[in-house]
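1st attempt posting a full record on here, be nice pls
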Amino acid sequence: MMGTRRGKGGMKIDAASSSKSINSPKSQIASLNNGRGQEITGVSLPAPGNVKGWEFGAGTRIACANVDGDLYAIQGDCPRCAFDLYRGDLVTDEAFGDLPRLACPTCATTFSLKTGRHGPALKRSGLAGFVGGLAKTATINEASADAKAYVITRDQESGRVFMKER
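the predicted structure (as tokens):
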């Protein structure tokens, strides 16, 4: 049949009337709660200067950081070596630029908490430096992968916390 295609749930969509579109799950979440995203419940927020890891639903992991009272969040596993980013170090050194950043505890790659972009590695010494060097060598093909960044907002009146992908 020309001009039709199957959409979500087997629903037929007429290609000629393309004014209607199926919303992607990402856009549906972004439009929730007056554009603030998905409400986060059942987790505790990190204290200033700390990072906490959260896991939702079917394995969605998030690393949330509190930097001077501002909440930032990126995906919970390192795009380069797949280790837990919430166990990493919060970087606020001006030399790194695009602050604040979160350094992976294994490969030491830093990620901007605002944009998720990868950046220079955090210099480590001793055993941590040795392990980081091995992880960088083993994951060289994923060296330029960025992390997903999320916007965390807090409703001042109700205290409710919301999250959506940046």
